[in-house]
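batch job 7 of whatever, protein = Carbon-nitrogen hydrolase
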Amino acid sequence: MFSSTVPSLRVAAMPLVSRPGDAPHNVARIADCLALAAEKDIGLVVFPESCIGGYGGMAKLHRAELDALAEPLDGPSIRAVADAVERSGVAAGVGIIERASDGRLFNSYVVCLPDGVRHCHRKLHAFGHRRISSGDRFTVFDTAWGLRVGILIGGDNYLVENMRMTALMGATLLIAPHRSDGGVNCTDDRRTRSASMGQSLRRLLPTRAGDNGMFVVFSEGVEVDGPEQSSGAGMIIDPCGRVLAESSARDELISADLDRGLIDASAGQQWLTTRRPELYGLLTRSGHQAADFEPRSVSARGAIALSFAQVSRNRPIR
């Protein structure tokens, strides 16, 4: 599947601690991380969701506060990140509140490559603020590393269908940025719930990586004054579901080399070839009818018919 001449890839996850509302500071931190990554021969650094704006809990931000965070994709922050990528030769994935040309706002994630190409994914399930619109498409693209990259932001990763769809589009490396709610705009209950969701995702991702035969790079960020139970996290997982590197420390760059030979050899890639799409029509329907399911066999007295089989412990089943 891959040519031996294609360069190998060392990836890193960076659970960056962002300063809320201070994009220049956060971008400068990103540039410093890329310079450090270059010294470690890292080719791609994955930063957290909304790491440039710095806010995790945006639900209670006023209109003016949210507007102040938003930038176009060709705005100063992404340009500065792209310049840092060009200087260091290290690709970077960063989260931003995007202001589209039509004025709509999106929770977006931009991957800047050293050749100047940029890829943007808009969060599919944008429940963070009522003024932030949800994206309407998956994002998958080819790279010079011989890996096809997909992006799912935060809550996009909670739904199993999203990762499976990304895999069916050929992605072999999933970038999965996340962000825990924090700061003064969140109640203690919401902070705890957000931290719990992040922990649940960290437990689920190895299984999802194995199911779909893809590498996953997870990076969870928090704010400077974020809750203690949300310390940020980084995790790199291989296509067999094994964790290659992991950290729960804030601002700790973790890295791993990706062995692309594991992709074709993974059980997940083999399982993808045995799918039967004709059976999955219910996934695209909003509701189920009684006729969608096989009826139970019921006797005249209303009892459900059951059958049992007795098998000897020492005798093989025939």
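notes: The chain is about 25% helix and 25% strand.
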